[in-house]
Design goal:
Low-confidence stretches: none
Helix content: 25-40%
Distance between the termini: 64 Å
Mean pLDDT: 78
């Protein structure tokens, strides 16, 4: 794998599996694990790949804490982000800030 990474451009490795096209709220590691396991789900059953306990990488992509931590513990700083190919060297807890709509709040208070 290391040899392949040095011979092929990052963009090829990332786009070949399509993880760069996933919505931000879905974990690429969860997708990767499910595709490699070839799970035979009952017809009509959909797997949930939503990011649980989100952590953000140094390149700005979100992964489940368990997924990203397991990859880093196995590969160290040699693990490339599945979405952009950049080496993941740092992760931190992702906290989404939600701003309230003050216009709607004022209208509700007047009623």
């Amino acid at each position: 794998m290391k040899l392949m990474r040095t011979l092929l451009p990052k963009s090829y490795l990332v786009s070949s599996k399509g993880y760069d096209q996933l919505p931000r709220h879905q974990c690429a590691v969860c997708h990767d694990a499910s595709s490699s396991e070839n799970n035979n789900l009952p017809l009509g059953q959909v797997q949930n790949f939503s990011v649980h306990n989100p952590y953000e990488t140094n390149c700005g992509h979100l992964y489940c804490y368990y997924c990203i931590q397991s990859k880093i513990s196995i590969f160290g700083d040699e693990w490339p982000c599945l979405r952009c190919g950049e080496k993941v060297t740092d992760i931190h807890k992702y906290i989404e800030k939600v701003e309230q709509d003050t216009k709607n709040d004022e209208e509700e208070k007047e009623k």
